[in-house]
Amino acid sequence: MTDNMAAIARATVGDLAEIIPVTATRGFPYIASRAEAQIAGGIVLEMIAEHASTVDAVVIAAFGDPSLKGARDLFDLPIVGMAEAAVMTAALLGESFAVVTFSPLMTRWYDECVQATGLGNRFKGVLTPDITPARLTDVQTDLGADIITMATTAATRHHADVIILGGAPLAGLAPKIASQVPAIVIDPIAAAVLQAMTLVRMTAHAATPLRVNKPAAKTSIGLAAPLAMAIHHGGAAS
Amino acid sequence: MTDNMAAIARATVGDLAEIIPVTATRGFPYIASRAEAQIAGGIVLEMIAEHASTVDAVVIAAFGDPSLKGARDLFDLPIVGMAEAAVMTAALLGESFAVVTFSPLMTRWYDECVQATGLGNRFKGVLTPDITPARLTDVQTDLGADIITMATTAATRHHADVIILGGAPLAGLAPKIASQVPAIVIDPIAAAVLQAMTLVRMTAHAATPLRVNKPAAKTSIGLAAPLAMAIHHGGAAS
Amino acid sequence: MTDNMAAIARATVGDLAEIIPVTATRGFPYIASRAEAQIAGGIVLEMIAEHASTVDAVVIAAFGDPSLKGARDLFDLPIVGMAEAAVMTAALLGESFAVVTFSPLMTRWYDECVQATGLGNRFKGVLTPDITPARLTDVQTDLGADIITMATTAATRHHADVIILGGAPLAGLAPKIASQVPAIVIDPIAAAVLQAMTLVRMTAHAATPLRVNKPAAKTSIGLAAPLAMAIHHGGAAS
Amino acid sequence: MTDNMAAIARATVGDLAEIIPVTATRGFPYIASRAEAQIAGGIVLEMIAEHASTVDAVVIAAFGDPSLKGARDLFDLPIVGMAEAAVMTAALLGESFAVVTFSPLMTRWYDECVQATGLGNRFKGVLTPDITPARLTDVQTDLGADIITMATTAATRHHADVIILGGAPLAGLAPKIASQVPAIVIDPIAAAVLQAMTLVRMTAHAATPLRVNKPAAKTSIGLAAPLAMAIHHGGAAS
Amino acid sequence: MTDNMAAIARATVGDLAEIIPVTATRGFPYIASRAEAQIAGGIVLEMIAEHASTVDAVVIAAFGDPSLKGARDLFDLPIVGMAEAAVMTAALLGESFAVVTFSPLMTRWYDECVQATGLGNRFKGVLTPDITPARLTDVQTDLGADIITMATTAATRHHADVIILGGAPLAGLAPKIASQVPAIVIDPIAAAVLQAMTLVRMTAHAATPLRVNKPAAKTSIGLAAPLAMAIHHGGAAS
Amino acid sequence: MTDNMAAIARATVGDLAEIIPVTATRGFPYIASRAEAQIAGGIVLEMIAEHASTVDAVVIAAFGDPSLKGARDLFDLPIVGMAEAAVMTAALLGESFAVVTFSPLMTRWYDECVQATGLGNRFKGVLTPDITPARLTDVQTDLGADIITMATTAATRHHADVIILGGAPLAGLAPKIASQVPAIVIDPIAAAVLQAMTLVRMTAHAATPLRVNKPAAKTSIGLAAPLAMAIHHGGAAS
């Protein structure tokens, strides 16, 4: 999954940016609830802490944006969430947008993710097939026609101007089906890396730290060293 | 801090319930931002996973309710957040409520915590002193008069019917100053344990699991064993 | 109806509190609209005025909470509405909740009651059978299976974590069907009396009056004497 | 107060309509809280029930619109609330509006009344003098200059396009000061009677009853006979 | 279309006001999108600028209210939009309202128009036939029974107390079908002219300009002379 | 002003895109109200119609985004509004944002522009100096220190994570002062052109037309030929 996403990201940015994929060494293959996002979020912060000094921006490559807001509080570089990037990009392309995904099990979580961006007022809902596919690896092949049908329904019946294809199993599908959907179709990973490049440009002259609204420096116990140091604002972690 | 909170909880429930205090072995003394809540939340889930089978309900004894919603997804017993319990209790006592706390550094975080409950429309804001006290241990003595003044201002100027005293350093202060404030004053830890007892009663006949809206069972890597097992819905964790 | 509710209340509180049932001597058997709530509300205020000095808290035992907010303005003890208590309790047990009731005629009124709590953003709607049952006294027997089906639909299709059984004809049904519903089922009268006990505890040290935000003392004409006196803040009523 | 309002109403409608003033024989001189509105509302319904068959429309001449929504449920003629009429008229004259009134004691109640209309998103707040005038009868003389100053502040600082003069003591003041305020100034009683005439026109061809969304017919106990009959949908009241 | 609307307006106001119909000499026959409203709005401003000094109020006789808010900024007389007038009038007649119109193509635009009034919280949606009629001129004859059916559905199923018949092709239909619909039916052009008369009364004593919140006077290039002058606040246009 | 904006745009995009500046031949130098936006919007549509076939995307280079939504309805290429692009970019960089601008006369209009994006819930308001500068051309020099002070206040007191410098007179100032502000400072023109490039990428494989939700093709009278043709969906304009 990481490989596929990295390939999409590289195809998107070309030679304008270098993509450094990082995979969590613990946790889950993908995120589908607040509980999982809570756990994954702590791991995400550890991973960012480890790499923050050597990259220009971070893309959290899970649709639910685990730890997105917390990461922005802690680290002085642009942090991009796939869901939020897809939503804001969609909002720049049309008045309203919907999410199409591969399983009804994702509906609640994806709805929460969109509401968390603050743009729920322009959101037309999550559309999914009635049942979860047996194998996620073949989703694009098996569900391709269904995805086009659902995206078309979102456009014609729900008045969505833009369709976000949500979830890692659909990564890379958007450009393949775009011409068959009567609305703009967005690949979140592509949206995220493009927005990351834009945000690096927008913060090129910013002061460090990027904001005054940071948590006070704190001593912690038992956290991974780089994260503890970030929480301690760069001082020695206890 | 844990001892003080446990004492308040015990004084509140008397012999109607047993209080089992559990302290995190890693993390921070208190939580003041989304980043800290994100990290603490994962630890909270680990702690709940360890004790869920031996208690009737859980109170997450930090005002920001780290992992509250995630914990409800995973575990089949009542999970109470201090901030949410204080807010819902306040809403049952008056039309509007405010939070009074000890430091301006908490304003943003506490405001976010209240908004997360969905009752922001009845919320009159966070009132704090202009500067953070030098020593948190003496806050109740040093700031007592200020707290009364701020609570009175919240009532008279901001039309708050109920005042929530937010933050562990103020735990236990509410009953001491209540008679000097022209509004109802709430101690969140007391509200939380009382609500926990009520929720145990309300779920006495419920089916297990408590809800159908749970994340699908998942295999994980590298998590603490009890948490991994909870995520795997009781099956063997990988 | 009063007897049944009192029995449920007594079974809920055990020997922790005394339940004193009071029935209106004029008005309607139950409330299903704003007009009826308006009329009943005035009668409720009269009844509270008569008993306020001899009880610790008041439960307004009609799902629409007639005069709840007005009563809080006037009287210096906790006033609990059945609908509001059920809603706030539900919000402490899950992210979202729905109301299941016995007649489509109640849909609009119950929806208004929930919106009035300010928690409409976590509300998944009212589910009812298509037609009103012929006899309200046998609702629990006649509709039992339907209620379970509707509650299950609310959980699975509408993603409600908690189901409130609304309306006096369903009082006492919740514990009987709870184990057959894949969500938490709440009896509003039980929620209300438990919350009343909590609120008495939370206001044990409060100043009198409980709030500064009270209407100015007023002379009135033609009202029942105890209510006139309450409006006159305890002075002699004209 | 009734005489003054009737005079303003008559001056407003000229010979296009007959004004029939009706005064409550019990209750309060004016309304300043939900408790008072609750009580007054029941009395208002009794009064409307008594006169509904002999008038074309009803204006509830108290700024808080007691029983407005309940009355619409019960009676098949236009029911106009002074506050709601002023708000909707203001919304037709400008993007935003504010309320200026004579006493800080009214702030909370008037704010609630405006929010109840659903147009709180265009509302810029209630402006009042710092203290309540000693004598309400001389408010227009004593506070005239202050009212102009507050209305001007509402326009220039709060960006209100329209100013509603709230409360019976200010009735009739609007046309006298309008030319000195850099915004449109509205007298609620004038707005209410003009809207009543419009609503009579708009319902001239309507079916009876005016709506299908009425409470079911109900038997009641102890209510004034005409109100009981209205609740029983014109059948004999018990 | 202008003739029909003028006839309805004249029948509504009788001899209380003179109706002066003005038709745009460029643009579209009717408006169904933001793009069209944007273009029409500029033309509307030109037309108002030409006639503002010789009329007492302006009704913008297109359901989408093109340039309504802009016109209020510029001109010192009441400006009434048909949609907004219908919405505010509906809100004075019932708790909730719906729009019934002749074509599914109007759904999105009419929904936006209602949301723009700020009263979307009382709105129950747009109901239309499934397909657009072939000829708009015969809509009232061809669709009459369908309109009644949809209005009845809006009342019974969607709980709308008031039905607005939207769109010029339905102008004048409301009084003809009103007695067959179990809710109040509103003709927007009638609502608009009646509101215009009310607003003239409400501003009879107002200062000129009507508000301080006007755009600063500006020099423009290439605009129609009367509009340029209005933008220049009555000074010579460049 | 056009030259300055074009220079900023070119410096932002480097050799990745060609900037083709187009200036309106009629209208106003800048936009500060809905009336002006209404007029300018029609002209904007004419200009886009003229150039749509020869560019990849359009930036409407006025902070109020005149005709943004209408243009998206009509034209099948990305349309970017400066205000909306700045807002969405700000939302990707922090939890909350504020606008700092050069004159109190812009407050109302800029507030409306932000609310129109749907992200008002993350907006902390418009900050301006107390009076409008005498000469707009020297604003950056004369007001530089004030802008830094206001941006700092927005960050520290209003908790804005990101500051948008609004209005053409401040174009290009952001990178010069960014290092002196404890928050991220955004230049809207830079944000807009970067977003335009991203949107071109995101729509590279899209179908034409970009959306099914377009107004029906219409015949018009008297419009500029290219605009009339766009409204007629590419057919011959009448």
From TrEMBL, chains A, B, C, D, E, F:
Annotated source species: Yoonia vestfoldensis SKA53
EC number: 5.1.99.-
Origin: domain of life: Bacteria
MF annotations from Gene Ontology: amino-acid racemase activity
A Pfam short name: Asp_Glu_race
Keywords: Isomerase
Entry keyword Isomerase: yes
Family: Belongs to the HyuE racemase family.
Lineage of the organism: Bacteria, Pseudomonadati, Pseudomonadota, Alphaproteobacteria, Rhodobacterales
Name under which the protein is recorded: Putative hydantoin racemase
InterPro entries cross-referenced by the UniProt entry: Asp/Glu/hydantoin_racemase, Hydantoin_racemase-like, Iso_Racemase_Enz_sf
Catalytic EC class: isomerase
